[in-house]
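Handout, section 3.2

Students often ask what a structure token actually looks like in practice. Rather than define it abstractly, here is a full record for Phosphoesterase. The first block is the sequence as you would receive it.
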Amino acid sequence: MKNLKKLTTLSSAVIALLAVGYTNSAGATSVVTQWNDAALAAIRVSHPSPTVVSRALAITHTCIYDAWTAYDQNALSSRQNKQLLRPSNEHNTANKTMAISYAAHQCLTDLFPDQAESFDSLMLMLGYNPTDNSVDMASPAGVGNLAAYAVLNFRHQDGSNQLGNLQVGSYADYTGYNPVNTIAEIIDLNHWQPLFVNGKAQQFVTPHWGKVTPYALTSGSQFRKELRTPADYNKEPERYLSQATEILGYTAHLTDEKKAIAEYWADGPSSELPPGHWTIIASNCVSARDNYTLDQDVKLFFSMTNAVFDAGIAVWDAKRYFDYVRPVTAIRYLFAGQRVASWQGMVDGANWEPYQPANSVTPPFAEYISGHSAFSTAAAETLKLFTNSDLLNCYATVAAGSSKVEPGVVPAEDVFLYWGTFTDAANEAGISRRYGGIHFSDGDLESRKLGRLVAQQAWEKTQMLFNNDENSYRLRQDN
């Protein structure tokens, strides 16, 4: 191996994503990855939910892509087709870079207004005026601003409730969701139970998300019928008990490697979460590896983030529809009064804990299906399609003692995680949630299946846009 290069650090300073000696052709990141990094920094500061992260990244890279299309003869923008197209003599890297930057700046300032100063700073570093709100199509700044305004105006009405117009509070639920179970009482063991975490009751995060307008799907429920119905406590007691027993087995026999896998992919509330994690993989293990140009970076991030965005919509549609119980609730109920093996040793089943930090013992939304699995599979499938290969060849080192669950103790030695293929990485992300006691097997495996279906449909639309063939795509959807 030559010139091992430490790449962008994830949520913990001791967990670094590494690539095997890759730099891009210019020895520096493109403006696309710079703006992606700015988005990730904003996400880490503001701590939005996984759904909001996936939307923010998709919108950012859609604004970037739409601005870029003004300087590309073939590609169609997502909102304005060829309305912003500039003459061919203006199709140069300088104009593309400037338009992209103004689009990203407008977009991120809209999505993360409290962090506008940091986006202004990046503009100044790039040599641009952050206060230039020109809408003159003859200038790259005007092109970028117009492209961003079109996308943002559309997305402000997409059902996400970003502006809080449908209910007080940005991204607040407007559908009237109420959990079947309460913190104090389990009324139906098939349904999600909020827990008391960090001194307050959990609230189901974005239960309305299945209603958000997707990028390529016809609706959030499009592929719901493809999912296996989760085990019913009353009708399928053996299947229900089996899935809970399997999770007990996973968490009782965790090696340091499996613990490292559970924590590495956890992407907790202080991180860039799974949608952001996969943009780091795309940047450091695809773009840098393959010496991508600015044009390729624009297309790479646009295609992947929109597939991941749609995956989140489909997953949250299922989470709301099935409203399914988390392992922690099922196991504590089923095994209360019994001694069970766990990562903490033998415990009363009523006191069983997932392998998670105490301040985020289990996510604040229903189990079925897994967001991690769908986000990761949709990203991996898109990267496979984009690169025409499943080859990834990337790795991470989890430092000794870096655990948030067992700090200073686990792992006893550095753990080396390696993924030869995109599929390997996505599968490991999926099973990590079983190791952590967060998801049942069906929640993981069915979500992987959904992620592949979503990615394929998103890719079909993306190819139509890249190749100036949106009419054919719309005709195919209508039929």
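Discussion prompt for tutorial groups: The radius of gyration is 22 Å. How would you have guessed this from the sequence alone?
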